Amino acid sequence: MSGQSITDRIAAAQHSMTGSAISKAVCKATTHEVSGPKKKHLDYLIHCTNEMNVNIPQLADTLFERTANSSWVVVFKALITTHHLMMYGNERFIQYLASRNTLFNLNNFLDKGALQGYDMSTFIRRYSRYLNEKAMSYRLVAVDFTKMKRGIDGVMRTMNTEKLIKTLPIIQNQLDALLDFQANPNELTNGVINSAFMLLFKDSIRLFAAYNEGVINLLEKYFDMKKNQCKEALDIYKKFLYRMTKLSEFLKVAEQIGIDQGDIPDLSQAPSSLLEALEQHLASLEGKKTKELNADTRASTLSSAVSSLSSTGMSFSRMDEKEKQQALEEEQARLQALKVTEDQRLKEISMQSPPSASPSSQSIGSANNNHITQTPELFSSTLSANSVPNLNSDLFDLQPAFIPTVQSTPSISTANSAWGGTSHVVLVSLLCSLLSRPEMQWNQPGEKKLTGGQNWQNKTMSTTQWSPAPMAPQPMPVPHVVSRHTNTHVPPQMGQMGGVPVMAPQPMMYNQPVLRPTNPFAPMPGAQMQFM
Questions:
Q1: What is the 3-state secondary structure of 478-518?
Q2: What is the CATH number of domain 6-258?
Q3: Which of 24, 248, 264, 466 is deepest in the core (most CB within 10 A)?
Q4: In this predicted model, what pLDDT tens digit does every residue of 258-289 receive, in sequence order?
């Protein structure tokens, strides 16, 4: 029965198809494999108990369903998983178990079909009784004794007498159910029962630590109690001594199976003289004739007993601190492993995809560069790169250290060409400003004459001089100009276009207030036309 069975694989696949991650994790944790539940599945279920959107009753019912299996391996691992969640899961889980009327009904469980079925079934029945008692204890006192605060200011040390006498028997019943597991070293032969024994070992230390502190509080208040309270307290103390003996036997088994000696606490019993002092005090309260110790002797005996029990409590506290340190180290190691894995993944991603421009940006850049390189060819007949420095200095002044360029945008890019990195937008603006000047003549080669042949002239009256009508300057988009070297924004100013000074359009004046004809080349009334 080594490894997962076909039934386990089919069940896990069914849960994967239905999308139930919790059911799949429970199925994975309670397979037919003869080994303890895997840590990764237990950790996932613990995480689920801390999530508010997880249905705790559904999780518990799924575990209960696994205990209905006929295989001792599945049932045992379902109990171990439940115990693990009660110890390390959210308190909501044990609260739900305590609210149920019945938990595990495995008093008659027996697996006859397996090699170890008879032996393991006995421990399953004992183990289930302890889990039932653990849930019942929480139901009675609304607290888990293995998780309560300990120390001088702990719960059991500060509890009042009446409540203390009612609480200590509950701890006794839970400890009795734990010690009834009674596993010998020869019977701990597989990973399943070893996992259960380790959980019981941890519970026994924490449970007895709370028990020990309750007894210390009980002894300190004993000589101030009433007769009935003293009688109950004496009975509790006698049972405490008996359970301390049984716990020492349980810890010897733990030592024999390989648990480190440093993880096993030392149990120090109170001197026997304390029991005699307690009995004599109760007899005196009942009116029996007995020799009662004086106050000094009684105080010294009580102090010695409390000191012995307190040393046992300190031993339990050291065990808790050691376990917390181990858990912290495991968590740090897990975080370090995750960090190394993340660094490796990022390194692989960076090696597989080196930084480069995206295809869309490359295509846009190439298209803009092609457009810009074609711009000088369009205006090569009128304006060349060599003629730019010969223009008037009031128009613009190109210095080597400051070359106006258009700010880079997704649609406009600068071109490193013979135009000194100036965008075609700036060139177009410059050309328009030049054409607006009256002294600049624009004669495109090969322009067709309007009419009249080669020597045709337009004769007008000498008293009338026509000039073109003034036209309102059309607003043009002003690009933002940024220096290539300083990368500082140069805002456009009035009378400038693209960072280059532009001559304002010259005003056009009429000598006489005459109306502008529709066709400026049509003959004017009273004018004489002569054809040469």
A1: CCCEEECCCCCEECCCCCEECCEECCCCCCCCCCCCCCCCC
A2: 1.25.40.90
A3: 24
A4: 888 777 888 887 778 888 888 888 888 888 77
Cα–Cα distance measured from residue 6 to residue 11, given in angstroms and rounded to the nearest whole number: 9
Domain residue extents for the chain: 6-258, 387-437
CB-CB contact of 98 with 138 (8 Å) = yes
What is the percent of the chain where pLDDT is above 70?
A: 60
Of these ranges, 189-203, 377-391, 516-530, the one predicted with the greatest mean pLDDT is: 189-203
**What single-letter amino acid sits at 338?**
L
Contact yes or no for 102/67 (Cβ under 8 A): no
**What type of residue is 140?**
L
358 CB burial (10 A radius; 0-12, 13-18, 19+): exposed
Going by C-alpha positions, the residue among 176, 175, 84, 67 that lies closest to residue 124 is 67
**What tokens were used for 510?**
């009429």
CA distances from 22 to 7, 29, 35, 489 (A): 18, 11, 20, 60
Residue 337 DSSP SS3: helix
